């Protein structure tokens, strides 16, 4: 089927004189996770991961570029498709722009749908390809012509996110935005990012699976705020909230008509998040200011109300996790449990919690060798059955009205090997060293990444994903602008930013280990040398001490773990039944320091 789709696409390419066609993973808003309508890359390749780009050429050379989270998954899903896998960021692997430059002749034409590519990405293409006079035609969505049963654009309800959770009114947020616009000398702010728009207007939706966002654009000027959205999707309360705050409502696609009419204005937008198609609509009389969206950093710094809500959310989510881990510990070996049924059971415990709405992403439930597939997705027909031995990795999270969670725990199901114990302990050491970091104000996440990786690198080991990503507030589980990884993103870690801490160890065909908690950036102390920050671990859930070799750890690391487990027991124990509470007491008991 995949080969037939590719053949149809190649035929269309020939009709339009395209030598290559590029299909990304994004939607019109450069989102990481997208509605079914936008899953063109999955349609043409069969690869189901959330990140990747496919290139199809007339000559029969086709490729998928994806990152280390998906190498094993992509190898499996691309089998028999005729599409080669290119492992991004690995030594000797070219970017797809450079690959196209090397494989296309001079004066070739590359086709793209300009709505799916950011301004920044197209400009990168042009810079790489200009030496061979390779043209980019951004005018056509060829996938739409061959996708016969393509899903329609989503039309689910848009609803209000109450101020008791959001912490700031629309007016307050707009005032902050306009103050920033004034500082940047901008007259007009064009915003395409879906989570930013939902945050700005204290609204939520369900247009994207597990992400409570809705398709929209907004334009902010000094005296107007216009929301471009399918007005039929707004429920009465949402519609009233917008009207009460003098927000002008226009139809979703009308944003391009508005943008075309702007002249002699200073327009602020993010070239990373705004489509190339949008740029093509902007008249040349305007001055475009390319900066990160104002709302992105405002949203990333959680306010006091949000932080108080989050502390409550992590208690609820921790209770659900402990109930699940207790059930798992008592049930494996006594009843049939699969990767899918285990994930379903965890979801059922989350559903019992107050204000739970949905999962924050599709659970990664991997037993033994499947845990080594970093973004593994278990399917009922093919998933593994858990046995009373080895390691089980469960990466999950919930969307609650009062916050978003993301947690990974790797669990001992029975007898484990010395290698598994060593790998688990190394992962825990990296997790603790990052969690206990103290750092100078103005530090980038990339400056701290080595703290988590040092126990790995000291032993010639590594993991092929970032160490930490930002997390939204009842929004996307992956949120910018901050991150912790080897790659420099020039965004400093500021008080109120919520970030994951998730080193991992993966041995293909054997096991996967990841320990993930969410941490909040907070003040530490101020000295004559400057202001220092720290991380406050918000996630409350035991880390499996049965997989630890404490002889590998330092006293400082063991002290941190004992203190963390003491907090977990004190905050969660009161919400558990007697048997669960006793189990938690055993799982959080103090580790004796053996050196």
Structure description:
The chain folds into 3 domains: 145 residues, 3-Layer(aba) Sandwich (Creatine Amidinohydrolase, Chain A, domain 1), CATH 3.40.350; 141 residues, 3-Layer(aba) Sandwich (Creatine Amidinohydrolase, Chain A, domain 1); 284 residues, Creatine Amidinohydrolase. Strand 22 and strand 23 form a beta hairpin. The N and C termini lie far apart (61 Å). The protein has 595 residues and is an alpha+beta fold. The chain is globular, with a radius of gyration of 25 Å. The longest helix has 28 residues. Helix 4 packs parallel to helix 5 and helix 14 crosses helix 15. The strands form 8 sheets. Strands 4-3-2-1-5-6 form a 6-stranded mixed beta sheet, sandwiched between helices. A 6-stranded mixed beta sheet has the order 12-11-10-8-13-14.
Ordered list of secondary-structure elements with their pairings:
Elements: H1 2-15, E1 20-23, H2 40-45, E2 53-57, E3 62-66, H3 71-77, E4 84-87, H4 96-103, E5 109-111, H5 119-129, E6 135-137, H6 142-146, E7 159-160, H7 163-166, H8 170-183, E8 188-191, H9 194-200, E9 203-204, E10 217-221, E11 225-228, H10 236-244, E12 248-250, H11 255-261, E13 266-269, H12 276-281, E14 287-290, H13 294-300, H14 304-331, H15 339-351, E15 356-359, E16 364-367, E17 391-396, E18 398-400, E19 403-404, E20 407-412, H16 418-435, E21 438-440, H17 445-457, E22 468-470, E23 479-484, E24 498-501, E25 504-507, E26 511-514, E27 517-527, E28 530-537, H18 555-572, H19 578-587
Parallel strand pairs: 1-5, 3-4, 5-6, 8-13, 11-12, 13-14
Antiparallel strand pairs: 1-2, 2-3, 7-9, 8-10, 10-11, 15-18, 16-17, 17-20, 18-19, 21-28, 22-23, 24-27, 25-26, 27-28
Helix pairs in contact: 4-5, 14-15, 16-17
